[in-house]
Each structure stands twice: as structure tokens, then as C-alpha cells.
Design brief:
Blueprint: H1 20-39, E1 61-69, E2 72-78, E3 85-87, H2 97-109, E4 119-126, E5 131-137, H3 142-151, E6 161-166, E7 171-177, E8 181-185, E9 195-199, H4 209-223, E10 230-234, H5 242-245, E11 251-256, H6 259-271, E12 277-281, H7 284-293, E13 300-303, H8 314-319, E14 324-329, H9 332-343, E15 347-355, E16 365-372
Parallel strand pairs: 5-6, 10-11, 10-13, 11-12, 13-14
Antiparallel strand pairs: 1-2, 1-4, 2-3, 4-5, 6-7, 8-9, 14-16, 15-16
């Protein structure tokens, strides 16, 4: 039975009516079908889905939509195929409990604000010791909303930091509390100190931290690193993979188009005493072209693109002629498309591992190893 009282109306989790073991079986079948149709990748190359340790209460990042109805805030998620907010009165069952506690505080505070209809979203991120909220405000009186939230800080003390996203050119402004959100990634050697990574409010991070650790484990398994490799990490974000993998390779270069993410990556590099990593703020295509012109060579390329995939970058990545490519994907369709493109440059799939990053939904993550024929 679905745990969520608004299941079926909310446009979020659409698989809560399916037993979790069956969800895993269905995800593997869907994944295998898409890869076969799109790139003729046989099912024998696909492992079973890596199950999530928790099928509920796993999300450490949630963006709640907000609307006003007769002066009462409706805080939840869009209904399927609409922009009507379905009120998640009891919180979200797939969010970690601390996030739902923060949400309760906002439900008590927001009715007191006279311009409630100008608040469109509340994003809440939970880190190792942090609970950071970002309020999205579409109104014109930024001073008014800022003063209101600062004055109610004692009612929002479940947050360790509060930020405002507002303005014609929206910027994130700190109202009070700390700013960085932290999480832990394992080192190569389990006996050594783990990597503590951070990102800024509004930045990108995986929503399921336990499965983020599982991703790292699978990448290490498929990479079979010897410590001599030059690694190129494309769409590297805040160094989520680059920093922990630096201990596995001779050198790593990360390329990312977001300046804020690169700033976080540099902070993480310094904080974890990583000396063999370099980060470049540029589009992946421009960055790869520049590395090729400079005569740089790489044994392994790690791809972790957005849902749209890395199709535009495939020709330039192939010119670098790495021995192997490790492709982290959140969309099987674009993964299949890109694997077919890479096959045209001599790369074949050796193994693919789907992971359940998003239980109770049809979405999945995967790690695929491609080798040069």
C-alpha cells in the first residue's frame, strides 16, 4: 500500500503501489529493453539493479512548490501534468525526516506573511550536520520578505541556515546561518579518512546520499584503477567523483560549466588535501577541444552529464582516444543514444550497472563501462 496520502494526485512518486522487489525487477527490464532498442546492448551485459538501503525516507534534497489558497499556504508538489500544487500536509514520505520537520516550521510561519502568493518554492537540503532552506520569492519588496524571515528565525531554528532566492536577475542571498552543505564520500582505502565534500545552496548534489556512495563504489569497480591513469571527469560538478577518485589515479582534470560548482570543487580539493586534481570552468565541448589542442591524453574519461546526455560531446571525447569511458547516466534513453554514437568511434559496452537512486519512481541511475575495440 502507498504510504503517501496524496499518491496518485501528486506528480512525484508514481510507483508506490508496486512492491519494492518488483520495482527493481521492472527497472532492470525497462533499462535492458531501452539499451537493446537504442544501442543493441545485450541483456547479458547488464547487472541486477543495485537496491537502495531505504525505499522511503531517502531524499536529502527536496524542492517544495508553494501556492496560496484563501490565505493558507499549500506546500507540496505539482499534480501530474499541471501546475496545481497538491498540498503534502503530512510531509513527503520519501524525504528524510529532518526535512519534513523543517517543512512543519514553514507551515506555521508563512501564513503570517502578507504577500504569501509571491512565494513560489522552498528548497530544503540536508547535509551531514546542516539543514539549509532556500525560499524563492517572486515579489518586488525583497527588504520586506527578508525582514520577515529574519524576524521569524526563532520559529525556524530547525534550519541551520536560511537563504532567499529573489530579484529580476535572481541571486541567492544569505539571511542567517551557515552556507555550505556537506556530505561524506568514501576514500579508496576504507581505513583512511573519508572525503568531506560541500556544495552551496542552490547548487547541484545527488538527492540520495547512500546511493551516491554506491555510485562511487561501482565506478571504482568498473574503472579497475591501478594508480597510473590520467582521468578526465566531464560534468564534474563540485568534484563529487573527482575528489574521491584522485586517490585511485595519477591525475584528474574536472570540467564543469557552472562557476559556482567549480568554486565548490576547488574548495573541496583544498579541504581534502588533494594535490593531483585540476578543475576547469568551461563548457564540456570547449574544454575538451582545448585539452586536445594542448596535446593532453587520458586513459579514462568519466562522463556524468545531465538528463539530456553527452551526445554533442561524443566526437570530441572520442578524439582524445581514451582506453575506456565510464558513463554515469540518469536517463536510459540518452545513454542508449550516446552508446550507439560511441560505437561509431570504436567503443563497445563491456558492462552496465543500473542503480535505484529514486525508489517509488520509474527513474534510475546507471554506470556503464565502454572500452576501445
Amino acid at each position: 500500500m502507498p504510504l503517501c496520502p496524496i499518491f496518485g494526485a501528486c506528480g512525484g512518486c508514481s510507483w508506490q503501489h508496486i512492491n519494492y522487489e518488483v520495482q527493481l525487477e521492472q527497472k532492470r527490464q525497462i533499462f535492458a529493453d531501452i539499451l537493446w532498442r537504442g544501442a543493441r546492448i545485450g541483456g547479458e551485459l547488464i547487472r541486477d539493479v543495485v537496491a537502495a538501503p531505504a525505499s522511503y525516507g531517502y531524499r536529502s534534497r527536496v524542492q517544495f512548490k508553494v501556492t496560496a489558497r484563501h490565505g493558507t499556504p499549500q506546500i507540496g508538489f505539482f499534480r501530474q501534468g499541471s501546475h496545481t500544487v497538491e498540498d503534502a500536509v503530512g510531509g513527503c514520505p520519501v524525504a528524510i525526516p529532518q526535512i519534513n520537520e523543517v517543512l512543519k516550521c514553514f507551515r506555521a510561519v508563512l501564513p503570517l506573511f502578507s504577500e504569501l502568493e509571491a512565494i513560489s518554492e522552498i528548497g530544503i537540503d540536508a547535509g551531514e550536520h546542516e539543514l539549509i532552506a532556500v525560499v524563492h520569492y517572486n515579489g518586488k519588496d525583497i527588504r520586506k520578505i527578508s525582514s520577515f524571515l529574519i524576524d521569524r528565525s526563532s520559529d525556524l531554528m530547525s534550519c541551520t541556515g536560511l537563504f532567499l532566492h529573489a530579484g529580476q536577475k535572481p541571486l541567492i542571498k544569505r539571511l542567517w546561518g551557515g552556507g555550505e552543505i556537506s556530505y561524506v564520500m568514501p576514500n579508496r582505502d576504507p581505513d583512511k579518512k573519508s572525503c568531506l565534500l560541500t556544495y552551496q545552496p542552490g547548487g547541484f548534489a545527488q538527492v540520495n546520499q547512500s546511493q551516491n556512495v554506491a555510485l562511487m563504489s561501482v565506478i571504482r569497480q568498473l574503472g579497475n584503477f591501478t594508480g597510473t591513469e590520467n582521468l578526465l571527469d566531464l560534468y564534474c560538478g563540485n568534484g563529487n567523483f573527482s575528489i574521491p577518485l584522485a586517490a585511485n589515479v595519477a591525475s584528474v582534470i574536472g570540467i564543469e560549466g557552472s562557476e559556482d560548482s567549480i568554486i565548490s570543487a576547488e574548495v573541496n580539493r583544498a579541504a581534502n588535501d588533494v594535490l593531483n586534481a585540476e578543475f576547469i570552468c568551461d563548457s564540456v565541448i570547449n574544454g575538451v577541444k582545448r585539452l586536445f589542442r594542448d596535446g593532453r591524453t587520458f586513459d579514462v574519461v568519466l562522463l556524468d552529464p545531465p538528463r539530456t546526455g553527452a551526445g554533442d560531446a561524443v566526437p570530441d571525447v572520442s578524439r582524445l582516444n581514451p582506453d575506456r569511458i565510464i558513463y554515469v547516466s540518469c536517463d536510459p534513453s540518452t545513454l542508449a543514444r550516446d552508446c550507439a554514437l560511441l560505437a561509431g568511434y570504436g567503443y563497445s559496452v563491456a558492462e552496465s550497472v543500473p542503480l535505484d537512486m529514486f525508489p517509488q519512481t520509474y527513474h534510475m541511475e546507471s554506470v556503464t563501462l565502454l572500452v576501445k575495440s
